[in-house]
Amino acid sequence: MMFTTAARWPAVFLLLSALCTLFVPAVTVKHENFKTCDQSGFCKRNRQFADDAAASSWTSPYALDPATITFKNGQLSGTVFKTLKEGEAQVRLPLTVTFLESGVARVTLDEERRLKGDVDLRHGSQARKERYNEAGKWALVGGLKVADGAALSEKAEAGYTKVFYGDAGKHQAVIRHAPFGIEFQRDGETQIKFNDRGLLNMEHWRQKVEPPPKEEEKKEGDEENKDEEKTEEKVEEKKDEGPKGEDESTWWEETFGGNTDSKPRGPEAAALDISFPGYEHVFGIPEHATRLSLKTTRGGDGNYKEPYRLYNADVFEYEMDSPMTLYGAIPFMQAHRKGSTVGVFWLNAAETWVDVVKSKTTANPLALGLKGHTDIQTHWISESGLLDVFVFLGPTPQDLTRQYGELTGYTAMPQSFAIAYHQCRWNYVTDEDVKDVDRKFDKFNIPYDVIWLDIEYTHEKKYFTWDPLTFVNPTKMHKHLDKRERKLVAIIDPHIKNTNDYPVIDELKKKGLAVKNKDGGDYEGWCWPGSSMWIDCFNPAAITWWKGLFKYDSFKGTAPNTFIWNDMNEPSVFNGPETTMPKDNLHHDNWEHRDVHNINGMTFHNATYEAMLERKKGEIRRPFVLTRAFYSGSQRVGAMWTGDNLAEWSHLEASIPMVLNQGISGFPFSGADVGGFFGNPSKELLTRWYQTGIFYPFFRGHAHIDTRRREPYIAGSPYTEIITQALRLRYQLLPAWYTAFHEAATIGAPIIRPNFYIHPEDEKGFAVDDQLYVGSTGLLAKPVTKEGAESVSVYIADDQPYYNYFDYTVYQGAGQHTVPAPLDTIPLLMQGGHVIPRRDRPRRSSGLMKFDPFTLVVVLDKDGNAAGTLYVDDGETFDYQQGAYIHRRFSFDGKRNALTSTNLHPRATVKTDAYLKTMAKVRVEKVIVVGAPKAWKGKSQVVVSEEGAKESARKRQVGFEYYESSGKKAAWAVVRDPKVAIGKGWKIDFS
What we know:
With about 1000 residues, this protein is an alpha+beta fold. It has three domains: about 60-205 and about 270-360 and about 370-410, Immunoglobulin-like, CATH 2.60.40; about 420-755, Alpha-Beta Barrel (TIM Barrel), CATH 3.20.20.80; about 765-990, Sandwich (Immunoglobulin-like). The chain is built from 17 helices and 51 strands. A hairpin with a 5-residue loop joins strand 4 and strand 5 (about 105-110). Helix 7 runs parallel beside helix 8. The longest helix is centred in the middle third of the chain and has 21 residues, at about 595-615.
């Protein structure tokens, strides 16, 4: 959500907004509000460092002293020395390389002098002296068990140390001593190189030479004298000598947009080049409005000139096809080629820039057998903190998402309502407005589960309050929604209004729980309420206090069907540098904001999640908390969305690769504002966006306060009917979606998946990012994202038959296939070989579907086989963690002509038995077999057998219908009401 004119803003805030030129929507992003690499001192220095290295016979000044190397319990330690100018002492950099049981390696490089606190800070700063070393505390939750089998190579080689690790020692780290570098190999082939181009650069601490004191002392606080001192400091800066190629002008302070960063610790960037030899595609490092396969950032036709930036920011009307930073940061990159997927996780929470360069080598016709290849060279640059990198050697995409998930956590299993449809806008203006919208959804028979409230529900932008004039009876409103199992989500942001007669700000100040400015006082900035302060959720005491605010007797008017939306948590500060906090602000334990910026939003999100767990003693329900800002690990506690998009076709198109990228980067519970946040979509665009949005894991319609109302029933015929059919398709397939969420929550798999993830050997499809697969269902969707389109071209990567979801038209053969897509049609195919679970009875909300029967769609592959899974739990509590769930595998064996249901539950518990009793009457009401064999023609019955049934009913005959193929449409068959329980084992024999 971004800002514009709204009711009851303080006059001074309107003035400030006008001065900042931010309160009136513009055509596109205001680039002048955000830094380029050249305007970010540490990025410019390190990019120049790379240019200088490439233009000369460069030798990296970093060397690992072999005399310092030790290896014990799966961890190699040593000291890397950075050589400075002649006559200067070398800089000591402690190195650790840890080999994990999962086959992942972790490399950390610190700075001994800062580590020991043997440095002086300028300006009397209270900041910590160490490099920030607590990112793992927030991002990592497991996967850190050290490998017992990792071992040094018995064969000594001069200048190198080798370590074998991974499954059966198939992985090898070849550590070069001088210049220091590491090659990571799998089965003897190099996959990843560190410092191959010599761009490692740990900016070490150095003393700032201050000007000598004046004979006459200046009075403290004299602004004129301060200006003179700054001028003298700048003169002294020119005298400082740094390594060749470094720009010294931003070592000690940096100014942008009228804000000056004091930099009390001086320059401290950490940078490294990481190469992927033989790879042509890299993915990941969200969030950016880019294609899935990342572009080169060093110019050239169709490429970028700027590096990809990771610096969580409130970006107003972001532009398409840009490496510019957005709201979240996940520094996880994977490289893919036929037969191999590898990756790196750059564990650093500071502002980070990443250059990507593709180096192509053509085949030499004189060198027989040698083919041309592509190497991808990346350059990672962070402003501060440790150099801390995890290395994944795959070899499959599934290996990477699983191992990354083991480290940072898997997606939280949401309540079932959370994966249904959410209706939102800025703002529903009264409690009666909310109820009216709810009634109209029912009137038009449109399903939805959640209605949302933006900031206007509060009293004068004070969170945990209700406007007494517009939300007169929130309790009655909640009860109204609850009658149809619907929920309400209310926004709560991290900025707390700094005003009188507001207990929340009074307690924040009294308890000392706000973020501090560089001098140690409470930081004050501007956001929605005007003057505001920010809760510091790095502080455990702040989290404890925050949790108390959400209890029902504190946040009066809320109910068990109230859930929360965390926005503006980058943090967004309207009058701050780059619309965020000054980097020299101080957080808990005196870490500077520069060190923790990208983690800030996650700490707030975590705190709200914990608060939702403790609203009432004994009432434990899975929270739902949406976040805009995020970091690695945010997936553990909720969902995200892609922020303030526009009602334009280009934004609809971009949403697909953006959400796909979130999925492969470990945060799959994601979506984009359906319809576009800014602007008024045409009815065609709105309709196509709903047809696309049903394939977002997080599915919400949202709109800006200045837009026209656009609830689905407003569009009118035929658009309302078409949108309604799209929504019903989402609801029909909720069992398949919920099963996909279970996979994400247990093995880290994306919920929607790109072509390369499903078909990792298909080189032609590696960059395909305008279509998607839903979980492991075989459902292949190609949303329409072009105005006026009547068809789409769907890329098929294999030779399996693909069937149109609605009429069973067959498409087969690798390559592009034209699929009709008039406005009332969603291009959706079913890959042969899958069993797709769904619920076909239309309901007003997902909660009303809880005990509905299931339909199984059996989609036969070219060999006549199919398989699929179904996961079901109560969709609300954490009882599933104690075994209260159903997990079944459905398999159709073409040779035996039988469909069977088998149990995937590892072991039954008391909770399992109790849950099965509640689901005892839930049955399979229909089985549809697509691609049914001709041999079934003429059959009228099948034989059904079920475990636990009475002897007389153990085997029984059930009616069967066969429909012949017609033209390009496949034959299909239906078994109606086989009367088998969804939670039991059974077999349907078609012989």
